[in-house]
Amino acid sequence: MASVEFIKDLCTPALVIDLDKVKRNAEGMRERFQKLGVQLRPHMKTHKTLECADIMTGGSRRCIVVSTLAEASFYADNGYDDILYAYPLPFDKVERCAELSERLSLFHIVVDNRFALQELKKRPLKQGKVWKVWMKLDCDNGRAGVPHSDPAALKLAQEVSDTAGVELTGIYAHCGNTYACQGEEQIKAVAQETTTITLQFMEKLKAAGIHTPKSSIGSTPSCSHPVPDMAMLSEVHPGNYVFYDVQQSLIGSCRLEDVAVRVLTRVIGHYPHRNQLLVDCGWTALSHDGGGRLPTGYAIIEGHPELKLLSMTQEHGRVEPISGKLDFKQFPLGSPLTLMPYHACATAMMHPVYFVHSNGKIIDTWKPTRGW
């Protein structure tokens, strides 16, 4: 692969990343929150590479969020610090979290129940260190977190605060409910609601005499269109924005021209009796995320709005026209097609290497970390 100079000559399927767009997306987010005076703590889960992390952190190698301990260790081993493991503390991983907490100057964990606190008590940190704990607040997203209106939320914060060897570092919320939005107005409404709930909870803590310095919310949609009140938060933690994808363009987070990631595929079969082409991109190169619900199926086929990626098996994709007869002469065997993925995080997960280019010329390859 090393000898290939242009993305058009890559063996397919291949994941290609437009470096200019990645840099533009990263700089846009950094500038947006610099203006608001809010710390950007970018999430690494979309790409899981060192090179992209360096771009997102502006070379600081500090202040990142991860979704797995594999990512946490990978970044720690490569000189990163101030890493927040944004996942409800798994009891099988307490020891690994302890080791990272002892080794780094700042390693943060997230809890949303008192049993997790008991686990931390059983494993005091060495070198006089304390566990840096963020409490996850569910601001009507309905995934992890203590429901914000539940008295248990304040009670848990109090317990964390009162526990020896543990510090309540902040309140963490994910506004994943922005993913149901269509357009800037709806995104801003959810961003406002999450911000208000989080800030009100911070006030409740203050009134109860509980000291916690930080508040953090985030999702790519809400951080792509922040509301002024977000300036009162300490941090935000979006991640997908560095690549963006078709889903984000439909939500209203970005324009299609901001999407930095593509999957290259080639035509491997003509089936006129079915009015279909086969391509060498199955779900192992794209993922099934999105469920084929786009008018164009599982992806957008760039430059061919008339085509639909109808279905995929492990290594095959079926392509047919949205209507009418397919002109097979337009798509000779071996000819390339470019797919814009529905969900960049899921698609990137499928690839062991990303081919990074500028205007079609390959300038780098990035290797993501994998596993848990």
Automatic annotation (TrEMBL):
According to its UniProt record, this protein's enzyme class is lyase
Pfam family membership, one: Ala_racemase_N
Bilayer-crossing regions: none
This protein's UniProt keywords: Lyase, Metal-binding, Pyridoxal phosphate, Zinc
| EC number of the protein | 4.3.1.18
Q: Where is the D-serine dehydratase-like domain?
A: 260-358
User: Which cofactors, by name?
Assistant: Zn(2+); pyridoxal 5'-phosphate
Q: Name one GO molecular function term.
A: D-serine ammonia-lyase activity
User: Domain of life here?
Assistant: Eukaryota
Regions annotated as coiled coil: none
**GO BP term, pick one:** D-serine catabolic process
Recorded catalytic reaction(s): these are: D-serine = pyruvate + NH4(+)
The family annotation for this protein states: Belongs to the DSD1 family.
Q: Which protein are we looking at?
A: D-serine dehydratase
